[in-house]
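4.2 Preliminary Data

To establish feasibility before requesting continued support, the project team ran the inverse folding procedure on a target of 433 residues. The structure was first converted into the token representation described in Section 3, and no sequence information of any kind was made available to the design step. The complete token record follows.
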């Protein structure tokens, strides 16, 4: 105990070993759904689902253990929601990019991310991007993920006359709706592991109606990651036409990770009056390195998880909590037979609830200022309506730039360096997409 206390500085941070362990378990329960949901999404790109389960656990374990042991942070990392949707639905399905090349794109975005972390460039870029656009990006991705969830449930279907319409209420759709309300009620009651438990109950109902078959074994060695591990194609990702997706991944990861680090650090009292996060450097390096490592293993961008806040509320303050969370992912490797039977309609409610959590960021927008509301609205609604995160980013950033030029804000901010940084990267994001 004295070694743990000295290494993780537990007493110094007004915590205890038992509180850290409980916080780590709480974080794991809050985000364990990613073990099921991430393979469910990425497998649609043609990747092996069994291998994806193994890789998701490994990537989450490595990223989180580094955050805990090296950065001494209670914040856990795993393949990011929204980013995995961008990988599958925009790159591989819409643009017909092979998943091997898509992994190469993620790898390169992580390399650029790491380069920007050197010398504090990344923080400067993030701080220069207008806060309303950061909030809008989170809200837009939330709507996009929720739309995918409704589609997977069978509630939203294609319609020639109206583009989308209401689907039939089949047995699996009804079961999925039950799962959605179970998760919603548990979240309202603030019960730990609500999303994970909702997925489990929905799967059990699928077994009862005969749509899902039980595995022969409950515990076994994990599936081989060989079908996807180290299969990334970096050379194919270096095409000029793919520069846009590389930067889109980088920018979305930038917003996602910094937003998570900001909210979790604020909960721990590590954000000063200027909005700056104390001891941010190592977590930024961890985030970037985890993305590079995750792409090499065979998954989409690995990033900091806002569900870490659940563990922080439970008392987590040090890297010991993240270490406990990491061990949870490692142990999950041996329960893949159970994980692999989970159907898509069981994970769909989780997508909707995660989408709701992301969408609530828009509550911080100033709805009375149309100059802010206009580009934010464009960003939020074009993501799901064009079925593309990168398109929503481009149109939202471009509309922000045009509005501020027309109202004369460039003249007002003539000597504001951050304003020019913001618009330079805004223009770049729009042009490359």
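Position-by-position output of the design step:
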């Amino acid at each position: 105990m004295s070694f743990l206390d000295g290494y993780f500085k537990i007493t110094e941070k007004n915590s205890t070993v038992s509180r850290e362990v409980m916080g780590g378990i709480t974080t794991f329960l809050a985000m364990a759904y990613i073990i099921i949901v991430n393979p469910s999404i990425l497998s649609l790109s043609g990747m092996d689902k069994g291998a994806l389960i193994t890789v998701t656990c490994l990537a989450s374990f490595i990223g989180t253990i580094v955050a805990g042991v090296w950065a001494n942070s209670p914040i856990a990392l795993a393949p990011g929601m929204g980013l995995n949707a961008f990988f599958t639905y925009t790159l591989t399905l819409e643009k017909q990019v092979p998943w091997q090349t898509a992994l190469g794109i993620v790898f390169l975005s992580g390399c650029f991310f790491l380069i920007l972390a050197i010398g504090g460039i990344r923080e400067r870029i993030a701080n220069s991007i207008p806060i309303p656009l950061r909030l809008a990006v989170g809200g837009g991705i939330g709507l996009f993920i929720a739309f995918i969830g409704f589609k997977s449930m069978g509630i939203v279907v294609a319609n020639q006359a109206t583009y989308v319409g209401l689907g039939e209420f089949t047995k699996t759709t009804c079961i999925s709706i039950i799962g959605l309300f179970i998760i919603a009620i548990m979240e309202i009651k603030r019960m730990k592991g609500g999303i994970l438990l909702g997925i489990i109950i929905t799967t059990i109902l699928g077994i009862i109606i005969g749509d899902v078959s039980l595995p022969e074994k409950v515990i076994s060695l994990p599936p081989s990651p060989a079908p996807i591990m180290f299969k990334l194609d970096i050379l194919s990702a270096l095409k000029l036409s793919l520069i846009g997706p590389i930067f889109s991944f980088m920018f979305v990861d930038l917003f996602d990770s910094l937003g998570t680090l900001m909210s979790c650090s604020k909960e721990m009292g590590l954000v000063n009056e200027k909005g700056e996060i104390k001891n941010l450097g190592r977590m930024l390096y961890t985030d970037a390195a985890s993305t590079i490592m995750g792409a090499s293993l065979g998954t989409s961008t690995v990033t900091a998880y806002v569900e870490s806040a659940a563990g922080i509320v439970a008392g987590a303050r040090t890297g010991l909590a993240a270490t406990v969370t990491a061990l949870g992912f490692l142990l999950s490797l041996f329960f893949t037979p159970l994980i692999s039977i989970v159907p898509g309609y069981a994970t769909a409610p989780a997508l909707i609830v995660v989408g709701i959590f992301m969408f609530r960021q828009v509550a911080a927008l100033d709805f009375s200022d149309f100059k802010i509301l206009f580009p934010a609205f464009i960003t939020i609604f074009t993501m799901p309506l064009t079925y593309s995160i990168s398109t929503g980013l481009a149109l939202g950033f471009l509309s922000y730039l045009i509005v501020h030029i027309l109202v004369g804000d460039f003249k007002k901010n003539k000597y504001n360096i951050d304003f020019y940084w913001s618009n330079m990267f805004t223009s770049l994001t729009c042009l490359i997409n």
